Amino acid sequence: MISPHLPTGTLPAGVSRQQSAEQIALYAIAELQDFITLRPDAPEVRKALAVKLVYQGYLYDEIQTILDVSRGSITAWKQSYVPVVNERDKQTYYGAVDYLLGELVLKANEAGNSKNTIDYLEYLLANSPDQRLLIFWDGSSYHCSKEIRGFLDSVNQSLPTEQWKIHCVRFAPNCPVQNPIEDIWLQAKTWVRRFCALAPSFSHLKWIFEWFIRHTTFDFDTLQMYGAYSKIK
Q1: Helices marked H in the chain — which ranges?
Q2: Residue 63, pLDDT above cutoff 70
Q3: pTM value > 0.70
Q4: Contact 93, 72 (CB under 8 A)
Q5: What SS3 state is found at 17?
């Protein structure tokens, strides 16, 4: 990294300290551009440096000058950047918005499937043992599986609909606007992108994600589209 501090020695006649700083910066930029151009993977080097400079706090105008790239390219590279992880590092999260509190009930699991969905529903029941749960969810295939239906039948024990412990309602097909949790995932991903370049490992990245979820109260328009509810006993 180029130091912003200049030597304290005597400057050449007629050259101000500001002019000297500009000359040093221009020389360093020219060297950097030569380095990038001579590399066989120059586009990827330029992309990686642009993203790194964004996260280090450089202004887009400064990055345009340093790397000779467009503002649109910088924006696109930043938005598309995700950390590379191994298969063993992948993580799936189950989450349900507590409509009354505006909080997300989060639980990590290794994959989305019937077994882990049942595990999450049991987790929700354990968190609200004295309440009946009304759950709106999407049309994932495992939400309609024989295993899920069997679990709901066992929990509701042939009770009348109005007394079910868990009542599940599906959103309209291919209509994410009906699902408020999509807005929460978007906010959490945006938060993670701000710091992903600084996270030393995938476990740290997960910690950042979970910290944001557990310390945020959510309140936005799509969360209010289903009206007002009270606790159902």
Answers
A1: 17-38, 42-55, 60-67, 71-80, 114-127, 146-156, 181-195, 202-214
A2: yes
A3: no
A4: no
A5: helix
